[in-house]
Design brief:
By secondary structure, the chain is α+β, with helices and mostly antiparallel strands. It is about 15% helix and about 20% strand. InterPro entries: DUF1963 (IPR015315), YwqG-like_sf (IPR035948).
């Protein structure tokens, strides 16, 4: 007699013990990373002295003569996370050649993150200067810049930024990754079907080779990394790409620390990036 109520097994259960090894994993990753290549600008830190006009994480921000420090919705000064002088960037497909882009956040236990509306910029801000006034002095800015802090801020010191252009394929944290990996694996190994890349054994998933595809590190563009999950899995953020990523990596005793060894991402739509419209940037950070 047929058992019409028998639970349907997934591919892994149906096929019993599958053959899964590192070479199969790397072969699948090569296919995926080859066709998902995207421009990336890797960021390296140094302890070099940096001015108010330089690209940096932390430190004293640039402010025009008539500009004020951005405020939260309750009128508290935000603190500078970092600023990118586009003149420092290598040639890139996003045509970022002139101006200064700043990233600000509140110094509180959530670093200004708005879980309910991640593009609200209620306690964070992304500000673009199309031109830079080189007559501004540090003393002028020090007279205006007095952010109130609760001692939580992830960047205490300042770091000068150096940029390296290149390309990279999709990272394991990107919310498109699981579907792409599963599809490509099943194409390559039809006798070893999987339902998700999580079906692979831990000894494959967590080997050093896997870290190559993690997406971690400081960078602009490319593919993001997360310790939790990609906020763009929500349909309303589907067209957002990575703008800037700040990892929990400093230099020696000069730390950058997002909670418990976390990571920060800023995302933007390609259209807004082309129009230099940074009013709807998605701000996210997470940690272990």
């Amino acid at each position: 007699m047929f058992d019409f109520f028998k639970k349907k097994k997934d591919p892994v259960e149906e096929s019993g013990k599958l053959e899964m090894n590192k070479e199969m994993f790397l072969s699948t990753m090569k296919v995926i990373t080859d066709y998902t290549q995207r421009d990336v600008i890797k960021i390296e830190l140094s302890n070099d002295e940096c001015s108010i006009f330089d690209s940096k994480f932390g430190g004293l921000p640039y402010l025009g003569v008539d500009d004020e420090v951005p405020l939260s919705t309750d009128n508290k000064q935000l603190r500078l996370l970092g600023q990118i002088n586009f003149a420092d960037l290598p040639m890139n497909s996003y045509q970022l050649e002139a101006g200064l882009l700043q990233f600000w956040a509140m110094d509180n236990d959530l670093y200004g993150l708005d879980f309910e509306n991640m593009i609200s910029q209620a306690e964070s801000r992304v500000i673009y200067y199309s031109s830079i006034d080189k007559t501004v002095s540090e003393s002028q800015i020090l007279n205006k810049y007095h952010p109130e802090g609760e001692g939580y801020f992830p960047i205490v010191d300042n770091f000068k930024l150096h940029f390296i252009g290149g390309e990279e394929g999709i990272s394991i944290g990107d919310y498109h990754f699981d579907g792409l990996f599963t599809q490509e694996w099943n194409n390559l190994y039809p006798n070893n079907l999987i339902s998700s890349y999580y079906d692979l054994p831990d000894e494959i998933l967590y080997e050093d080779e896997f870290n190559e595809f993690s997406g971690f590190g400081h960078k602009m563009f490319g593919y993001p990394a997360f310790t939790q999950e990609d906020p763009r899995s929500s349909e309303k953020y589907d067209d957002y790409i990575l703008l800037l990523q700040i990892d929990s990596v400093g230099i020696g005793d000069k730390e950058i620390m997002w909670g418990d060894s976390g990571i920060c991402n800023f995302f933007i739509t390609k259209k807004d990036l082309e129009n230099k419209n940074f009013s709807k940037v998605l701000y996210n950070w997470d940690c272990y």
